[in-house]
Design a protein that fits this description.
By secondary structure, the protein is of the alpha+beta class. Helix content is 14%, strand content 21%. The protein is built from 24 helices and 97 strands. The strands form 36 sheets. It has a three-stranded antiparallel β-sheet with strand order 3-4-5. Strand 32 and strand 33 form a beta hairpin. The longest helix has 37 residues. The two termini are 77 Å apart.
Length: 1499
């Protein structure tokens, strides 16, 4: 607008955006453009954009956004322009030139749709904590709900928060209100609630959890905690419940609806809750409705529409789809673009790409599989197929590439629903198989869409059941509040969403105790709290016993007198007539032994029962270690006494008074008892622990003085000389030493040492290992490297600084030197002797590193390291050649050791406390130098330990049970592990294998009318639902899909390797192969012949049959129809079933059935897929919609076949075929895979046996002999074993009969409908036509009934005609009667006929006849009239104008009704009443011009 003065109007103009030129007044200008824009300008202007050609180059034009729109321009295409009305100034924006109205109001501007075509949709949003959004393009009216800020004060106390006035100026008026039935309210703080009933003492349990207390009745114990709005959840009795908050449903401060409407619904979007947990807030999100994409947490989403999502038009031809404008209002602007270096594009369709080089002829090979072609150089044969994004994979040189695509990269449905996306098969041909899986703790998944997530309510509510010892079960994870508390077996009972009332019929688990002896089990009180009250009762009721078989009269011992010897009694453990031969000989005290059934027992005697008084008299215990051996009883000292057991007499017991010492221990002194005689007491002594010194004290603590380390005062003298100070005994004075530092030797008493360096200390081993001696002629510290190795006489030789080369008098001396030994002459010859330093002269040589001085010894020349520390030196292996293994050990009462150095010594507490453990037969152990950690440990085979006190010992085996979480019992030295409920099982000496019957308490199968079975109670989650009542089918972990007959491959016959025979409504399983047997509705028990009796399970376990030819011992597994496969000798066969051929399912139009795994062991995996490879594969059913395949236009095909191959072309390209005698597989658009037919050289083997030869593949020795029809059979590289043909192939049954093969050489014939008869086994059936009684049309009474019906119809028609004539006569009589009408002006052309006073509609009438001559024509107008009836029965015609009536004569009889009086026709003939009735009923005539409905009264 060049002049914005209000005096200058209509001067605005449109100006073209540079670089185009042009302008026009008050209308759109015609813009002048240059370059490529001259031809493509309309592409831009159609989108409201302008064209720009930045250079003189080709294909660089672009469409750009006109201001104030913005967007990144795209070469050779339109731009996705954006108009954010909140960020720029324009006539429809929040800022029209005078500033942003939202910002001026202190609010935030939001533009939900920035498409240029979407204007005036911006809104003003109030700033937090204020709430509200303007409903139109202007500032919002803001409110503040103070509960959004302070509501937690109320909710934390289980109360409701309310803000009565949300005006921003009204603050601090929010209040907390108590949740009913409690009462109370408080402003700006939690209220003090008044409760009643049990909520008075228990309300704090609920309010502490932010819940309300509810007491529904005066009954005790029925109070509960309930959730406070907006939280939801079932109340929990006597405890806090689990509350949930769906922020998408309930209005609340953190919800999608915070008080002014649901944010998502207002934007036309879906609200998705992340988690309904009460502590999971602000996790809801708005999700765009498909096909729009986008989501936003706690706010409305900005939705986009990418038309390329799910669009396979471009990708199917190796092109890329590009939707430049993804705003929801921009549709049908997607385009297919060729992948560089190819060029070309097309809107809403496949582009015609221009390829170069070798890609010109070979590009169809790539594009037909959704790939593009690239020719990287001018070299021949280097063209390649490339994957087109988003597919990835290595290029295929001269062939298609191996591409893959993770569909989850493009899927947003799962993420927007808070779920994870998984693509199990990323191959390009496997599309639509992505699935959304729920995140823990929820569970569930769905293919091609968001999953319905279920929550195991037992995770959050299971504690209600567990605290009562019950099990929580949530069988439906989708619905809420259906969790169940179930009583643990063997008790019974369950309750939904609460604790169950359990009953326990103890006869369920204990009944066999009674029934096994012919008695009856009775549990008079089945309450779960009433235990051990079951009883066994005699059948005749004569006796009963609680918890055990009753004593029903019949004691077998009455007839067994004298069978049990002296010291034994006869006992009938079950003295009932139903239980015989169960009497036992039982040992009688004091004899012991296990009872033996029906013979004398092996009894033993515990001699302590007879001689124990000898021990007890001495205050000791008696023990008999072997009850079967006499004279070995012992007296055992009782704690705290100790001593060796004594056989046959009292033991010599001692008493170590230090076991009860507390005096010495308190002073950290040692306690000793010099005389542990029982009769000598109070002679225990306390003595000082080194390095403390002092005299021992009897009966009291010693007076100890700490030693003084003289090195503290004198150590500096040694250190100044580079030496170390040692004080070997801190209790003495004047014994400190200065010790030379290694490698020097020597020490000085109370002075600096004079150090020497005997180099043989460090190097002597070099000499000694070859039997030489080391000598250092000068040990002065200043003289080094002068040590000498000298050969031992009689050998000669020496060497300074190394081993000498010895001259030996003989070979024996040389052998000695090699072993590190010296050589010495002896009487009659020579011998090897030990070297210097050995404790022995002749081998074996003792070389104690603690006793000599050497480089590897404890004494390296300046004193023994152990002795200097007051420790003892030990060489565990004092032999020549074993060096550096000496160690220093601490002396009593200290403990500790170290190899090669002085030990770190600590006090061994067992020195003074061992008696505590040994007196009870245990050992003492002090694991460390820490005071107070000594333990008593049990001796094997018992285990256990305790710190500072005797341990509690148990059998070692119980640790195995406890480690497995099982119970343990011990009897006779053996332990038994028992499973804890609901597990069942036990084991002796080891952890039990626990089993659980998963069908116990599982109602999923039974609810569907199916049977549950658990094939392996030790394997979890393998329970199976099986069909019943003649139906077949089963499914692991879910309800089975049931079917009748053999068409369902899940029938029990096929799985067992048996032939299935339809036997409606069930099936019959018949054994086949080399077996016989038959069963209805279940797998038969087969009787196998020959070697199959030993090998049948190899076949039947995998659904095959075992077969052995007559007179042979070579067995095979053969496939069972409908499976097929070549039998393999001595093992399983690869059996094949194409379920698509077997089931012939209907996949729908433009679809194909595929069985991806045709193995007979892989069933129910067939799927339907669209022929054009689009859409989702549907397992077990048809795809929703499949488009017909559109074949691309034919192109010139160039064949590329190999040598000895011919080429044929078709619509799909070309095929190469091998030329005889070569064979092979035809390959589409590529050379065939040809090979030499082995039958040329090996076929004579087959023809000699009257069989044919076939070579199915190029593998060596894979040729086959095949039987000639009608025989069947195949042999690989050998003559085939032929079998007889299918008996039904020769049509042995008669006409109108069906033949069914039931096994080798066996068949059945059944009659076809409508014929009937019995089934013929291996013969024709006996069929006959149906009975004459079934021909209803030949029955006489049927025809009589038809005749009567026709007569009735004729009579009704006759009555209708006669009645019509009578009505006509009555009409003529009434027309002749005079009428005295009251005339008024009519106002409407027609009026409804009503019964006067009642409003009953009677019909319509035409205008009245001409008025009588006495009335002036000017006063009468034609108007429709209405027939009315008064109370007296007279009738009149009322004009449609008020008050105009035409009186009618009253009816002549009771049956006569008012009827229509139609206007007379113009001609003299009057239509009959029947004619008028017909025209009226036809719905439209002169009396009913508006086709109004005809009332039933007229009919």
């Amino acid at each position: 607008d060049p002049n914005k003065s209000d005096k200058r109007l209509d001067d605005w103009k449109c100006m073209c955006v540079l670089p185009s030129t042009g302008e026009a007044l008050k209308t759109a200008a015609t813009c002048a453009v240059s370059g490529e824009c001259q031809t493509v300008q309309t592409i831009c202007t159609q989108q409201g954009q302008y064209c720009d050609d930045p250079s003189t180059g080709s294909d660089d034009w672009m469409c750009k956004c006109p201001p104030p729109q913005v967007g990144d321009a795209v070469v050779r295409g339109t731009t996705a322009c954006v108009l954010d009305e909140c960020s720029v100034a324009c006539s429809t924006c929040a800022d029209t030139g005078t500033g942003n109205v939202c910002a001026q109001a202190g609010q935030t501007c939001f533009d939900p749709n920035t498409s240029p075509s979407s204007t005036m949709d911006w809104r003003c949003v109030c700033p937090s904590p204020l709430t509200n959004v303007s409903s139109e393009a202007k500032p919002a009216s803001c409110t503040i709900d103070e509960c959004s800020v302070s509501g937690s004060v109320c909710s934390a106390a289980g109360q409701l928060c309310k803000d009565p006035d949300t005006n921003p100026s009204a603050t601090s008026d929010w209040r907390c209100e108590c949740a009913p039935p409690s009462v109370g309210v408080a402003v700006a703080q939690a209220a003090v609630c008044s409760y009643s009933g049990e909520c008075v003492p228990y309300s704090s349990i609920c309010t502490d959890a932010g819940q309300a207390c509810i007491d529904p009745s005066s009954d005790a114990g029925d109070w509960a905690c309930g959730c406070v709005y907006p939280y939801t959840g079932a109340p929990s009795a006597a405890m806090a419940t689990v509350c949930e908050l769906n922020e998408c449903l309930a209005p609340c401060p953190t919800c999608a609806d915070s008080g002014s409407g649901n944010v998502c619904e207002a934007a036309g979007q879906t609200c998705v809750e992340g988690s309904t947990a009460s502590d999971s807030l602000n996790d809801w999100r708005c999700v765009c409705v498909l096909p729009l994409q986008g989501s936003q947490v706690i706010d409305a989403a900005e939705c986009t529409l990418d038309e390329c999502k799910g669009n396979s038009v471009c990708s199917s031809q190796g092109q890329q789809c590009n939707d430049q404008d993804t705003s929801p209002n921009s549709v049908n602007d997607w385009r297919c673009e060729c992948v560089l270096p190819a060029t070309g594009s097309a809107v809403r369709s496949v582009a015609a790409c221009k390829f170069t080089g070798e890609c010109v002829p070979y590009s169809p090979i790539c594009t037909q599989v959704g790939q593009t072609c690239n020719d990287p150089s001018d070299a021949m044969g280097d063209w390649q197929c490339l994957c087109v994004a988003p597919q990835v994979g290595p290029a295929g040189v001269g062939k298609t590439a191996n591409c893959s695509k993770d569909e989850c990269d493009d899927v947003t449905v799962c993420r927007e629903a808070g779920q994870d996306c998984v693509d199990p098969d990323t191959s390009p041909g496997s599309l639509g198989d992505w699935r959304c899986t729920c995140r823990s703790p929820s569970a569930g998944s769905a293919v091609g869409k968001a999953a319905i997530c279920g929550l195991d309510e037992c995770v959050v509510r299971g504690s209600v059941c567990v605290v009562s010892g019950q099990t929580c079960i949530d069988s439906n994870k989708v619905t809420l509040n259906d969790w169940v508390c179930e009583c643990p077996p063997p008790s019974q009972g369950r309750s939904v969403a609460g604790i169950a009332t359990c009953t326990l019929n103890e006869c369920t688990t204990n009944g066999t105790v009674c029934t096994s002896v012919g008695q009856e089990c009775i549990d008079s009180n089945t309450a779960a709290s009433s235990l051990n009250d079951w009883r066994c009762q005699c059948i005749d009721g004569s006796n009963a016993a609680q918890g055990a078989p009753a004593l029903c009269p019949f004691d077998e011992c009455t007839s067994k007198q004298g069978v049990c010897p002296a010291g034994q009694n006869c006992q009938d453990t079950n003295n009932t007539a139903a239980s015989l031969n169960d009497w036992q000989c039982v040992c009688v005290a004091p004899y012991q032994g296990q009872p033996v059934t029906m013979q004398a027992a092996q009894c033993s005697l515990d001699e302590c029962t007879l001689s124990g008084s000898v021990c007890t008299a001495a205050g000791q215990s008696c023990a008999d270690p072997n009850l079967t051996k006499s004279g070995d009883w012992e007296c055992v000292c009782n704690p705290p006494l100790n001593g060796q057991n004594a056989k046959g007499r009292p033991a010599d017991c001692n008493f170590d008074e230090c076991t009860a010492d507390t005096v010495c221990v308190a002073a950290q002194q040692l306690c000793t008892d010099p005389n542990q005689s029982v009769n000598i007491r109070n002679d225990w002594q306390c003595s000082c622990k080194p390095p403390s010194t002092g005299a021992s004290s009897t009966g009291s603590q010693a007076a100890c003085s700490a030693g003084i380390d003289e090195c503290l005062a004198s150590g500096a003298i040694c250190a100044a000389a580079g030496q170390s100070c040692k004080d070997p005994n801190t209790s003495l004075t004047g014994d400190w030493l200065c010790v030379c530092s290694a490698p020097f030797q020597g020490f000085g008493q109370r002075s600096v040492a004079t150090c020497t360096l005997d180099e043989c200390v460090a190097n002597g081993d070099i000499c000694s290992k070859v039997g030489q001696t080391c000598f250092d002629p000068n040990t002065s510290a200043a003289t080094t490297s002068d040590w000498i190795c000298s050969c031992v006489s009689p050998s000669s030789g020496s060497q300074t600084g190394g081993q000498a080369v010895c001259t030996h008098p003989n070979q024996l001396c040389a052998t000695c030197a090699a072993q590190g030994l010296a050589c010495q002459s002896d009487v009659g010859g020579w011998r090897c002797v030990c070297p210097v330093g050995s404790a022995t002269f002749v081998p074996p040589c003792v070389f104690d590193e603690c006793a000599v001085t050497c480089n590897s010894c404890a004494n390296k020349g300046y004193g023994n390291l152990c002795g200097l520390e007051g420790q003892r030196c030990v060489d565990p292996s004092p032999i020549l050649g074993s060096t550096n293994d000496w160690r220093c050990e601490c002396t009593t009462p200290y403990t500790g050791a170290a190899v090669g150095s002085a030990a770190s010594c600590v006090v061994d507490e067992c020195f003074s406390n061992a008696g505590v453990c040994t007196t009870v037969g245990q050992s003492c152990m002090d694991p460390s130098g820490t005071m107070g950690d000594w333990t008593c440990q049990c001796k094997a085979p018992l285990i256990g330990q305790a710190v500072g006190t005797p341990a509690t010992c148990v059998a070692a085996g119980c640790a195995v049970c406890q480690g497995a979480g099982q119970a343990c019992t011990e009897q006779g030295g053996q332990v038994t592990c028992h499973c804890k409920p609901p597990g069942v099982g036990s084991a002796v000496g080891t952890a039990a294998v626990c089993t659980v019957d998963e069908c116990e308490g599982n109602s999923i199968c039974s609810a569907a009318g199916q049977q549950c079975r658990d094939p392996s109670s030790s394997v979890p989650n393998n329970w199976v639902c099986s069909c019943m009542n003649g139906l077949v089918g089963e499914r692991v972990g879910a309800v089975a899909t049931c079917a009748t007959g053999c068409s369902n491959l899940a029938n029990p016959c096929f799985a067992a390797g048996q032939v299935c025979i339809d036997n409606s409504p069930g099936v019959t399983c018949e054994c086949t192969g080399s077996s016989t047997g038959k069963a209805n509705g279940a797998a038969a028990v087969c009787s196998f012949q020959g070697v199959c009796a030993n090998h049948s399970m190899v076949c039947t376990d995998i659904g095959q049959a075992c077969y052995v030819p007559q007179g042979s011992d070579i067995w095979s597994c053969v496939c069972v129809p409908p499976a097929v496969g070549t039998a393999q000798q001595g093992g399983p066969t690869m059996c094949i079933i194409d379920e698509c051929e077997q089931l012939q399912p209907s996949c729908g139009a433009n679809q194909t059935c595929t069985d991806p795994n045709k193995s007979a062991r892989s069933l129910a995996d067939w799927y339907c897929a669209c022929d054009d490879n689009t859409g989702v594969r549907q397992v077990g059913g048809p795809v929703a919609n499949c488009e017909p395949v559109v074949n691309p236009p034919k192109e010139t095909v160039t064949c590329d076949c190999g040598v000895n191959q011919t080429c044929t072309t078709d619509s799909a390209g070309y095929q190469c075929t091998c030329v005889a005698p070569l064979k092979g597989t035809n390959v589409a658009n590529g050379p065939a895979d040809c090979y030499v037919d082995e039958c040329i050289s090996s076929g004579s083997v087959c023809t000699a046996a009257d069989q044919t030869c076939e070579d199915p593949s190029g593998e060596d020795s894979n040729w086959e002999c095949r039987c000639v029809a009608p025989l069947s059979g195949t042999g690989t590289a050998q003559v085939a074993t032929c079998t007889a043909p299918d008996q039904c192939s020769s049509t042995p049954c008669g006409e109108m009969q069906t033949c069914n093969t039931t096994g080798p050489g066996a068949y059945t014939c059944t009659c076809q409908s409508p014929q009937q008869g019995e089934v013929g086994v291996n013969k024709s059936a006996t069929c006959a036509a149906p009975s004459e009684d079934d021909k209803w049309y030949e029955t006489w009474w049927v025809w009589v009934l038809i005749a009567l019906l026709l007569l009735c119809c004729c009579y009704m028609l006759y009555w209708l005609i006669i009645n019509s004539q009578k009505q006509e006569e009555k009409q003529e009589e009434q027309e002749s009667a005079p009428a005295e009408p009251l005339i008024q002006e009519p106002e409407s052309p027609e009026e409804e006929i009503e019964e006067e006073g009642s409003g009953r509609l009677l019909g319509y009438v035409p205008p009245p006849p001409p008025p009588p001559p006495s009335l002036p024509s000017s006063e009468v107008k034609a108007a429709p009239a209405v027939v009315e009836s008064d109370r007296e029965g007279s009738s009149s015609l009322r004009s449609s104008t008020v008050g105009t009536y035409y009186p009618l004569p009253p009816p002549t009889s009771k049956e006569q009704e008012p009827f229509l009086y139609p206007a007379p026709p113009a001609h003299s003939e009057r239509p009959t009443v029947l004619h008028e009735l017909h025209t009226l009923l036809s719905g439209r005539n002169q009396t009913n011009p508006l086709n109004q409905p005809v009332h039933d009264d007229i009919y």
